[in-house]
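Obj: model holo form, ligand = flavin-adenine dinucleotide.
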Amino acid sequence: MKKQPVKVKEKDVYARVKNFEEVVEGFSEQEAQEEASRCLQCKDPRCISGCPVGINIKKFISQITQKDYLGAYLTIREKNDFPSICGRVCPAEYQCRKSCVLTKKDALFASPEAIQIHFLERFIGDYGLKNNLWQKIPLRKDTLLNQKKVAVVGSGPAGLACAGELARQGIKVVVFEGLHQVGGVLRYGIPEFRLPRIVLDKEIEIIKNLGVEIHTNIIIGRTKLLEELFKEGYSAVFLGLGAGTPSFLNISGENLCNIYSANEFLTRLNLMGSGYFPQYHTPLNIGKKIVVIGGGNTAMDAARSALRLQYINGLKGEVAIAYRRTEEEMPARRLEIEHAKEEGIKFEFLIKPQEFLGDKSGKVKKIRFLRCRLGEPDSSGRPRPEVIPGSLFERDCDLAIIAIGLSANRILTQVTPQIKVDKYGDIVVDPDTMQTSFKGVFAGGDIVGGEGTVIEAMGMAKKASQAIREYLSRL
Ligand code: FAD
Ligand code: SF4
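Output (holo structure tokens):
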């Protein structure tokens, strides 16, 4: 008889909305064994081509079935430095699971029957963290490169992955981070109920244990210039600057009080501890009628965080997501959409904000929307939302969160004209080496090609680290 997918354990919905504890509890050993035993060990394992960094998925699943957890950990770590993180946040339904042979042909995203590769990866990643298996990762020290020093700017997944790769080769790496904490979006964007900080801290600790030095509160381009790093003796620089600039709707009333960008909302909460105001200094307003505009992971994270804050603050209210296309086109992870629905977030599709209306004190009171219908595909390949004339309507709203996208962090590139950027402010690189137009400077992650995923950022960083190694060996 065909084996059914193993259902991963999740926290009870009524309990979980009152706190920020992790929702998905992960597989036990027995569950991981059962799920791994469903893998067909295909001759042509398509799952591997669906993974942006090409993890040998078939092999690590087979190693799980043999209870060779160290082997499975090392197989994953050959390609991915953060299995416990990626096992939690990767949009596997659009990547490896979508390519799994068990996904139905032409499906938009993975079928439920597809092997739950991400949960197996998480199981192995967590096993590795618990048993300090990183110590078994072979170091590839190159004595010729031992005297070389590389600077990494930005401590998001791209910066950390590049730093880890280079440190494993015996290269001295120093990471410079503008914020006071390490991790980039993994720290200030993705909430704890999806990525517990203990997991993030442990993964960062491993990078530090490899000898990587991390300096926070240093903005390259402000505190010191990129050129100064070379004068200080760094032979190459990797830029993992991310896409930290929020986009806005540019409609009337957007400057009213209680309208946040999702980036600001999540940063106040995740980085500045505003959930614990006044013990922490940063406040965060919260409302009864909250509307989040957008359909990506950022929108889901903001909505689910806002809902938790309503509960914690004893505010009985409503959180709604307004999206201009339909659920099918939403770029968010399917699991996040499901969880948001279970938790009571309302979804309103095919609507587009036109104007924010405020009260006498300058606070947002209502949003005016227009209804949309789907038209021909746009440059993203998704059907373009077309406004239906005369369909204007209003919704009450005392807190709005705008989550419609992010663009390049330009702090460094604005003062470094030698680095070529495109019309979006993203850094232009040679796709084979990730080298920028500035000699000895490489880049990867969201600052190249715009907002992507954690694993894509790490994949670019890995490619850059290889090119940096070759560059250093030629010096
Ligand atoms: P970032 O993570 O943005 O890190 C860049 C770092 O560089 C930041 O810490 C910044 O402070 C620092 N920096 C920038 N300029 C300077 C400077 N001049 N000097 C010093 N430091 C500097 N992806 C997924 O795969 N799954 C998800 O579930 C998911 N959810 C997301 C949820 C949210 C709310 C957001 C915003 C994004 C999400 N993403 C998700 C996308 C993913 O987080 C990004 O693709 C990824 O973090 C990009 O990594 P990065 O290292 O390029 O940049
Ligand atoms: Fe297993 Fe699916 Fe990969 Fe085949 S495609 S090896 S079934 S995970």
